[in-house]
Specification:
- The chain is an alpha/beta fold.
- The chain has two domains: 3-106, ATPase, nucleotide binding domain (Nucleotidyltransferase, domain 5), CATH 3.30.420.40; 118-170, no CATH class.
- The protein contains six helices and five strands; from the N terminus they run βββαβαβαααα.
- The protein has helices at residues 35-42, 60-69, 79-86, 94-106, 118-149, 160-170; strands spanning 3-9, 13-20, 25-32, 49-55, 74-77.
- Strands 3-2-1-4-5 form a five-stranded mixed beta sheet.
- Helix 2 links the parallel strand 4 and strand 5 (74-77).
- Helix 1 (35-42) crosses helix 2.
- The termini are far apart.
Length: 179
C-alpha cells in the first residue's frame, strides 16, 4: 500500500501526517524541525512512501535537501496553492495543515516549486552577506564624513585605501575628535 506524507514545517516543530492511498490517516506526529528527526519517523520500513510534500518556506530548502539526500521522494509545493487548498478547512492548525498537504500529495493536486541546490544557496548567502557588509562600510564612511563636516573638516574625494589616512590627517590637531 502506498503512503503519502504531509509536513507542516514551523521553526521548532513539524507536524507530520501520513495517509494511505485511500486517504485514511495512518499516523500523525509532531517532530523537531530537523531532517534527522524527520528521517527517524519517515524511514519506517512498513511505509511505502510515494510522495512527501512540504510547503515552500524559510526552512523548506534545508529540509528538502536533507530528505532528498536520504532518498525520499520529497516535493516542495507552492505556498499560495497550499493556502487556497487549505482555505476550506474550518480550523487552521499545524496538524490540519499537515493533513491537507498529505491529501494534496495523495490526489496529486499540487504545484511543485524548484528548490535551489545547497551550493547555490551558499553562494547566494555569501553574495548577500558581502552586499550587506559593503552597504554598512559605505554608511559608516558617510557618517564619518557628515560628523567631520560639522567641524568644517571636508574629507573630499578619496578612495577606500586612503580614507583612514585622510581622516587622521584632518583630525590631527584635534585631540577631542581623535581617540
Amino acid at each position: 500500500m502506498k503512503h503519502f506524507i504531509g509536513l507542516d514545517v514551523a521553526v521548532k516543530e513539524t507536524a507530520v501526517c501520513i495517509v494511505d492511498e485511500s486517504g485514511r490517516i495512518c499516523r500523525e506526529v509532531r517532530v523537531v524541525s530537523h531532517s534527522d528527526d524527520l528521517l527517524a519517523v519517515l524511514k519506517d520500513p512498513a511505509l511505502n512512501i510515494e510522495r512527501v510534500g512540504l510547503e515552500a518556506g524559510p526552512l523548506s530548502q534545508w529540509l528538502f535537501e536533507g530528505l532528498a539526500c536520504a532518498g525520499l521522494p520529497v516535493i516542495c509545493i507552492e505556498t499560495r496553492h497550499v493556502k487556497a487548498f487549505l482555505k476550506a478547512q474550518p480550523n487552521k492548525t499545524d496538524r490540519n495543515d499537515a493533513r491537507g498537504i498529505a491529501q494534496m500529495m495523495r490526489v496529486n493536486l499540487y504545484r511543485p516549486v524548484h528548490v535551489k541546490t545547497l551550493t547555490s544557496q551558499k553562494r547566494r548567502a555569501l553574495l548577500t552577506a558581502r552586499k550587506l557588509l559593503q552597504g554598512k562600510a559605505i554608511a559608516i564612511e558617510n557618517d564619518i564624513r557628515g560628523l567631520l563636516r560639522n567641524f568644517g573638516l571636508k574629507v573630499g574625494v578619496v578612495g577606500t585605501v586612503k580614507f583612514e589616512e585622510r581622516i587622521c590627517e584632518l583630525v590631527e590637531g584635534m585631540p577631542d575628535l581623535y581617540s
